[in-house]
Amino acid sequence: MAGKSLLSSRQFQEKHRDLVIVLQSVFQKTRYSGQVPLQAVESLVGGVEELICTIGVLNQIKKIVINKEDYTFRHSINVAIVAGLTGKWLGLTDDILRELILAGLLHDIGKTQIPLSILNKPGDLSISEMSEMKKHPLLGYQLFQTYEEISQLVKLWILQHHERLDGSGYPYAREGSQVSYHAQIIAVADIYDAMTSNRVYRNAATPFGVIEELFKEMFGKLDPLICTTFLDKLNESLIGNSVRLSNGTEAIIIHIDFPRGTKPLIKTSQGECIDLAKNQKLHIVEVYCT
């Protein structure tokens, strides 16, 4: 994968938007024809690679406004970016990174086979609707059964991106070594972007909410190395970001480490340094990405 890109924030946003438009067309064609236009999908991989190489990419994708009409497509682009980025941090080869990006782009393609009435429902899903929604990894896997151009690994990662090591995932409740390592990379990217995006039924969590969630998931549900690698880099990306505290005070994150987790050291606009690990009365309610 190429070195760091000098894309400006505006250029990043424009390229991201262009990729979303292409992926939206892919999903729409798949929904109505039952056939995935692979040439268009493969053209997206290089674009995602360029975005991955942008300086401060985690902050860049959080600046993107996601609305309910294009959430699935923007989310899929973001999952491809974060999965590829995490794979790069883990030292995976370029060939595997491209496969990982492809699987990230297509991880939710099975949702094209789910009724729109369920996908676009603004409230909580019923038990039967949730059961239908949980079929999407299997439906995505089945879409590619006759596509020899897509590797068995990519198909497996699409199938398993909601499986968990303790057997609590779906669609088959696989556990332990039955769950693909690379599918767990996509799972981490999926959790991160889903939690930090505004949805029809809830507001976005702060990155610290994601840190808490992944910290829980890494003990039994997801691979600890994947989670710690991602969390270390996420912490690094948060240093220098402005935040708003629960009492309304504006501040800047000046230090955060893995054991500290959701309680960084901050400096207020008045110059006061506060260790949130020691001050239990205050917490971060909003992060402004630089």
Written account of the structure:
With 290 residues, the protein is α+β, with helices and mostly antiparallel strands. Helix content is 51%, strand content 8%. Strands 4-3-2-1-5 form a five-stranded antiparallel sheet, with no helix packed on it. The longest helix is centred in the N-terminal third of the chain and has 25 residues, at 9-33. 37% of the residues are buried.
Summarize the structure.
The protein has 290 residues and is of the alpha+beta class. The protein has helices spanning 9-33, 38-52, 57-62, 71-89, 94-106, 116-119, 127-133, 136-143, 152-160, 181-195, 207-217, 224-238, and strands at 242-245, 250-255, 265-268, 273-275, 284-288.
Q: Helicity level, as a percent range?
A: 40-55%
Write the H/E string, N to C. HHHHHHHHHHHHEEEEE
Structure classification? alpha+beta
Beta-strand percentage?
Answer: 5-15%
Give the N-to-C terminal Cα separation: 25 Å
Beta-strand segment tally: 5
For the largest beta-sheet, the strand count, sense and barrel status come to:
5 strands, antiparallel
Using the CA coordinates, give the radius of gyration.
19 Å
Write out the strand line-up for the largest beta sheet, numbering strands in chain order.
Answer: 4-3-2-1-5
Keywords:
290 residues, alpha+beta, 5-stranded antiparallel beta sheet, 12 helices, 51% helix, globular
Topology (SSEs and partners):
Layout lengths: L8 H25 L4 H15 L4 H6 L8 H19 L4 H13 L9 H4 L7 H7 L2 H8 L8 H9 L20 H15 L11 H11 L6 H15 L3 E4 L4 E6 L9 E4 L4 E3 L8 E5 L2
Antiparallel strand pairs: 1-2, 1-5, 2-3, 3-4
Helix pairs in contact: 1-2, 1-4, 2-4, 2-5, 4-5, 4-10, 5-9, 8-9, 9-10, 10-11, 11-12
